[in-house]
Specification:
This protein has 225 residues and is an alpha+beta fold. It has five helices and eight strands. The longest helix is centred in the middle third of the chain and has 25 residues. The radius of gyration is 30 Å and the shape is elongated.
Length: 225
């Protein structure tokens, strides 16, 4: 019987302790927001080439690589995507697609002029990015957290209170535009006909590309002292 009494007393004590732990502390909940614009430093293009037969396609592929290399594109920045043969076409056209990456040092106008060839089937943008985007994201999130703390500080100070221990920190991704189309590319999906735009004074430089916009929110809850 004594053991049973001890168990009951122990359970009652634990229950009171749990209730005490569940007592809510006075807290303030605020959200901090931070933004940043980042200049792109890389563009990845999709390019498709064609040939009437496999030998011609191989020759055109060689010409493509020579053209890209002449314009400063490295071999490791050119990747094979796919190959296709239209067996239902009378001409049996063979096509092959690649991706290639250019940097801010690339002369975009000259590149597009050199790619204005009959064997180039299409060119379009796959991605526009900044190579250090991960570091910039961290910075924006840290700034958002700092903004939340600053907001809590001045709000509580206005009523004679202070910020205590952070109780909750929740990341909210509002908006991040990692892929931005520049004005010159928005209506340009290059083909043999459309590539004439390369000779029409269109600015294909990085200066004509909109910045990547990062925006993050951090929701926080602080104890009120």
């Amino acid at each position: 019987m004594k053991l049973r009494h001890f168990l009951i007393i122990g359970l009652l004590t634990l229950g009171r302790f749990t209730q005490a732990q569940e007592i809510k502390r006075n807290a303030i909940e605020v959200t901090g927001v931070a933004e940043m614009e980042v200049e792109p430093d890389e563009i990845i293009f999709n390019v498709g080439i064609k040939g009437d037969n496999k030998n011609q396609l191989a020759d055109n592929e060689k010409s493509l690589f020579e053209t890209l290399k002449k314009n400063g594109v490295k071999n490791e920045d050119i990747k094979f995507q796919s190959m296709y043969q239209n067996i239902y076409s009378k001409t049996k056209i063979f096509t092959k697609s690649f991706q290639f990456k250019v940097s801010k040092t690339t002369d975009m106008g000259n590149l597009f002029e050199n790619l204005n060839q009959k064997w180039v089937n299409n060119i379009n943008i796959a991605e526009i990015k900044n190579t250090k985007i991960a570091d910039f994201r961290k910075t924006v999130k840290i700034n958002a957290l700092k903004a939340a703390k600053e907001k809590a500080d001045y709000l509580l100070e206005s009523i004679g209170k202070k910020v205590g221990t952070p109780l909750e920190i929740t990341e909210i991704e509002d908006y991040t535009s990692d892929m931005i189309l520049p004005k010159a590319y928005k209506s340009v999906r290059v083909s043999n006909v459309q590539m004439e735009a390369a000779d029409a004074g269109v600015d294909y430089s990085f200066d004509n590309i909109e910045n990547i916009k990062l925006k993050y929110s951090i929701k926080t809850k602080y104890e009120i002292l």
